[in-house]
UniProtKB/TrEMBL annotation:
Transmembrane segments: none annotated. This is Uncharacterized protein. It comes from the Bacteria. Pfam families: AAA_14 (PF13173), DUF4143 (PF13635).
């Protein structure tokens, strides 16, 4: 165990705390069992290490372990955690829990056995703790970490000091929120850059190698992380990748299940289930008509990529500006709001507000006469009549 503690010390020493993700200040850190889900590459590990560093506790009291460490191939988590506790340990940060067999059972046992041991764990976005062998949903306070907003990207990379805006402020008009921005702020200066490489925090570490690394992350998600899903046959990983590439070249995609099955060589009876897997992995976004209840086996009305960065990684020669606009809008809104498809317009938010997305010449023709309907326009800074697209990147 000393090796684990020493490794934790080295990792904490190397992490920077000058900038933290939006979720850091929203987590109720004093809860005894906290779970953080998120797609690979969104910064869950950094979040844990930053919290551990902020505690300023010695490693025998608070430590970080990743459960894909070779140490745990021949040393059990429960026994190691008990040894840690008996030596004075009180806070345990566990990373990549989905890599460890029966992880939910081990965490439940530790939670029940030691009422003064705090456990904070992270896992893939594909985890559904209510469907694990042991349901932790009544014990754990769960959060989801999404990729960076446009605001976070600007603040982290360019040291901007951009505000968080509420949805209500945005739809109230530019006069409500424009003065909150620095006078010299040019909102479109780095917007195209964000669309291509700003969603994943690791772009800040390696800008030149970002596209290659993102492609590798996609393969790891499909070929390894999805092996943890109940009902997913890992032998079909290659077919799932093929399905993802088909979708990426055609988004926004109105699914024809028979055609998708033919092109991907996946049986048509399982296509909807596999689409659901890809959405859980935060690789695509399934959008359904407004006002309906959604089941896993239901065919979506439209399919988008989860975020605009994926479009450049998966289909760089097929990126379409209209699709990038809609993908960006959906990725930023989905963090705190429900998205669906209206009969008129592009998106319905929270079953009430309708948005039509377009270029700077976009008018209200598609939503004329509709209540609670707004036009969102790209390629403009602070338009007088409509809402600029970039401002939806300030929601978190």
């Amino acid at each position: 165990m000393e090796a684990l503690l020493n490794k934790s010390v080295r990792l904490v020493r190397g992490v920077k705390t000058d900038s933290v993700r939006y979720l850091f200040d929203k987590i109720v850190w004093n809860n005894r069992l906290i779970g953080i889900k998120g797609a690979r590459g969104t910064g869950k590990t950094t979040l844990l290490l930053q919290r551990l560093k902020a505690l300023s506790l010695p490693p025998h009291q608070a430590t970080y372990w990743t459960l894909d460490d070779l140490y745990f191939t021949d040393s059990g988590l429960a026994d190691t955690a008990r040894l840690f506790y008996n030596r004075g340990g009180r806070i345990l940060f566990l990373d990549e829990v989905h890599k460890y067999p029966a992880w939910s059972q081990h965490i439940k046992n530790l939670y029940d056995e030691y009422d003064d041991l705090q456990i904070i764990f992270t896992g893939s976005s594909i985890i559904d703790i209510a469907k694990e062998e042991v349901d932790l949903s009544r014990r754990a306070l769960m959060y989801t970490l999404y990729g960076m907003s446009y605001r976070e990207y600007m603040n982290f990379k360019y040291r901007s000091e951009l505000p968080v805006l509420s949805f209500g402020e945005i739809i109230s008009g530019t006069q409500v929120w424009q003065d909150k921005f620095p006078e010299k702020f040019r909102p479109l200066e780095y917007f195209a850059e964000y669309l291509q490489q700003g969603y994943y925090p690791f772009s800040l570490e390696d800008e030149e190698g970002f596209a290659t690394r993102l492609q590798q992350v996609i393969r790891i998600i499909v070929e390894y992380d999805m092996a943890q899903l109940s009902g997913f046959d890992i032998k079909n990983a290659q077919k799932l990748l093929q399905l993802l590439y088909i979708l990426s070249a055609n988004v926004p995609f109105k699914p024809n299940i028979s055609e998708l099955a033919r092109k991907s060589h996946i049986h048509r009876n399982t296509i909807n289930e596999y689409l659901h897997f890809l959405e859980e992995a935060q690789l695509i976004r399934l959008v359904y008509p407004a006002g309906i209840s959604v089941s896993t086996l239901q065919k979506p009305e439209k399919i988008f990529l989860n975020n605009s960065n994926l479009a450049f990684a998966l289909a760089p020669n097929a990126t379409d500006k209209g699709n990038l606009r809609e993908t960006f809008f959906a990725s930023q809104m989905a963090v705190h709001h429900k998205i669906s498809l209206p009969k008129q317009g592009d998106f319905t938010i929270n079953d009430t507000y309708v948005f039509e997305i377009g270029g700077k010449q976009k008018g209200r023709k598609q939503i004329e006469g509709m209540e609670h309907a707004f036009v969102v326009v790209d390629d403009v800074d602070f338009p007088a009549l409509h809402i600029p697209l970039w401002v939806f990147g300030m929601l978190y």
